[in-house]
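Researcher: Batch entry, complex prediction.
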Amino acid sequence: MIDASIGPLGGELEALATTLRRSVVEVHTRGAGAGSGIIWSAHGVIVTNAHVARSDHATVVLWDGRELDGVVTAHDPRRDLATIAVDPGSVTLAAAAVGHPTDLRTGDVVVALGHPWGITGSIALGIVHAVETRRGAPRWIRADIRLAPGNSGGPLADARGRVVGVNTLIAGGLGVAVPTTTVSRFLEQVEARRARSRPRAA
Amino acid sequence: MAGPSTTTPPAGGVLESLSNDLAGAVDRAGQSVVAIHARRRIPASGVHWRPGIIVAAHHTIQREEDITISLADGTTVAATLVGRDPTTDLAVLKVDEAKVPVASLADGSAIRVGALVLALGRPGSAVTASLGVISTVGSEWRTWHGGTIDRFVRLDLSIYDGFSGGPLVDVGGRVLGVNTSGLSRGAALVIPVSTVNRVVDQLVKSGRVARGYLGLGMQAVRLPARLVEKQSLPNDVGLMVVSAEPGGPGDTAGILIGDVLIAVADKPVGDPADVLSLLGGDQIGKTLSTRIIRAGEPKNVSITIGERPREPRAARRGR
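Model: Structure tokens for the complex:
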């Protein structure tokens, strides 16, 4: 039973939220409301939803309120994923720890961080409702968790605070996230395309 | 290319252990959760309650033939309807062979306010779950169809499409009851294990749950003060008869539309539930003494309690 551990449980959740919040950004684009984004690398790669990054440029707001100018470098409406590049300059970016969506089981605890209804750095707690797979690979993570539109592009993390998905939509009351395995594949393809188009010395 | 993460959060915390407990409970209890294909839309859920006996929500069984059940092991088997009890929204199905475990049932003491609970469903091939707490526990109550539920249990938990008929389980994976949204216009309610056991016993034995029946529709009305005074009535409310089933027990005893029941079995009545509570299955065939007001005058009428006829078809409501 967990009754005796409610104190540590609350403390751990607070610590998890504090750490994860440093890897979550607010994404503003012209004409659209704010969405969320995940700091994928300390060099300045932000992952978000394609429906959040709808223009070429975006303003990225860090957890402490500092603003960085971002350029949308990749945009995939089919997977609903996009990347934004920022120049961190003197700012130290905290990249999110990435987990393993393939290990998720129905019932596992998940945490969502984002900016629902424009409320900055809000946390939600829930569980995995179902992991929908396609050819053995996770395709969608459905979570029994209360999300709102501003959660789009923000992380769904496991009980250790490792990001397992990008919160993308709400369907039938459930939060639906794109698994990070899909994000990795998307980033690999973006990288490969860039390598191909790079000029080579003859 | 995984993100060059700076630090990996440590393992072995309380949250991770809770996560393991919940996933373990889903895995264990999920073995006895089945999908029931007996309606057009998405399948509903059910519980392998006893060997070969599946419990489901009555309102999700929309056809009585060609019912199939998908089990946790991936097999699909044919099922036959043993019986249904619309008053508690329960139905019982039978399968010849179910190579999956039966549910591990908790005793009533596990139902406590604040208990962390999971609702499970199988609206397809995989088991799905939602997490919440028991928010209210009350005493025995009567559904608007006249069924008795041993305890009133309300949940702070989301019941998704296809969840009705699935189990509510504790963190240990033990079943506390069967969830349904068919008894309260969509809100999540639990039918506790003791009630399910009672209904299963009756349905397995006779294929139905017998209820007493008067064939009268009644509505509470306030009586004129003059009448209350003149007849020295104990109560200023009564139940006006607004419909009488032709040939039903009330009609046969001579009750007319417009009569006002003021007492039944020597007790004043002011709510239709007061009458329903006297119509248990064991009362069928017995005589019920009633005192009515007709045309301003009191009158005694004896009604022989009949048996409630079966509902012609499943009511289509709830998820």
